[in-house]
Design a protein that fits this description.
By secondary structure, the chain is mainly alpha-helical. 60% of the residues lie in helices and 4% in strands. The protein contains 13 helices and three strands. The protein has helices at residues 3-23, 28-47, 58-70, 75-94, 121-128, 136-151, 155-160, 188-205, 225-239, 247-260, 265-272, 277-280, 282-298; strands spanning 166-167, 172-176, 181-185. Helix 6 (136-151) crosses helix 10.
Length: 302
């Protein structure tokens, strides 16, 4: 690939980044994933003396996808790359930058759909009991875990919360989601844990009075995703829970437990911030599977 074509690729990638960020309003994780896929495709084209991104056709994409398979990439990785290519080329096709969409005929890998893992109610109780309110970290960790299970918000949304997003007297939080803000109620224990943290603990943890973050780390700055992931893993080990718990596990458990106890899918969709009901319906499948498992284990003739 000539130097001029590399410049063209850089310009196309920069435009794609802006499209994802400002038009599609994609999450930071999605943007990072899509941009990585496109940069790797660009590097492959360059290393194999193929046309640049916008001049490549169905043939070049097919060669690259075959190479991904031969390199041992998983079906999930290949499917994600194909989804990235479709997004990239559809944008440039609809904006008139290319006359044909080379990704239009690409077919994603057929993946075995795995239901997300959830905790039982007893496992949730066990996990939430682990933080010991004997120091600032314990109070903070308990408030974070209670809030996450009370609302089902994403970990990015959790660590992005500011003090002004919490209304303790009313018992709600305002969450700034991907598409719109949403107000989510809190159960009594979550309100109590949050109230104790905000009133007595956080003022002594923040590095500056100007700090807006609701949850801060030991340095007094906003908690990070990695920092909270380590917190969850610490309490999983402490609770001796065998399941692989991530912050998202509590989001899944929140939704499944609400559904089990009679909440309707549309209300759960609103609280989770799903734009499409089909994303929420997966929890109906989880609950049905659990009922079937209980039946098979308990019925004398099963």
């Amino acid at each position: 690939m000539e130097g001029d074509e590399l410049v063209l690729d850089s310009a196309a990638l920069a435009e794609f980044d802006e499209y994802l960020r400002y038009e599609r309003k994609s999450s930071d994780n999605t943007i990072a994933s899509y941009m990585r896929d496109m940069r790797q495709l660009s590097e492959y084209l360059e290393n194999h003396d193929m046309p640049n991104l916008l001049d490549s056709g169905e043939k070049e994409l097919g060669i690259y996808i075959d190479w991904l398979h031969r390199s041992g990439k998983s079906p999930a990785t290949v499917s994600r790359c194909i989804a990235t290519f479709k997004c990239f080329y559809k944008h440039f096709f609809t904006s008139g930058k290319i006359v044909q969409d080379p990704s239009a005929s690409l077919i994603s890998e057929k993946l075995e759909k795995k239901l997300p893992q959830i905790l039982t109610s007893k496992e949730v109780e066990l996990l939430l009991e682990q933080p010991e309110c004997t120091d600032a970290k314990g109070y903070r960790d308990r408030a974070m875990l209670e809030l996450l299970y009370a609302t089902g918000i994403r970990v990015t949304e959790l660590i992005s919360l500011n003090v002004t997003d919490v209304n303790i007297p009313v018992g709600v939080i305002r969450c700034h989601g991907r598409n719109k803000d949403r107000v989510i109620p809190l159960y009594t224990k979550a309100v109590k844990a949050l109230s104790e943290y905000v009133e007595f603990i956080r003022p002594n943890m923040i590095a500056s009075e100007q700090e807006q973050a609701l949850f801060v780390n030991v340095n007094g700055a906003r908690m990070t995703r990695q920092g909270f992931w380590k917190i969850v893993k610490h309490y999983q080990a402490k609770a001796h829970i065998d399941k692989d718990i991530t912050p998202h596990t509590l989001r899944h458990s929140f939704a499944a437990h609400l559904l089990e106890n009679g909440a309707d899918l549309h209300s759960i969709q609103e609280m989770l911030g799903h734009s499409d009901l089909s994303s929420t319906q997966i929890y109906a499948h989880i609950v049905k599977k659990q009922i079937k498992d209980v039946y098979n284990k308990a019925h004398p003739r099963a």
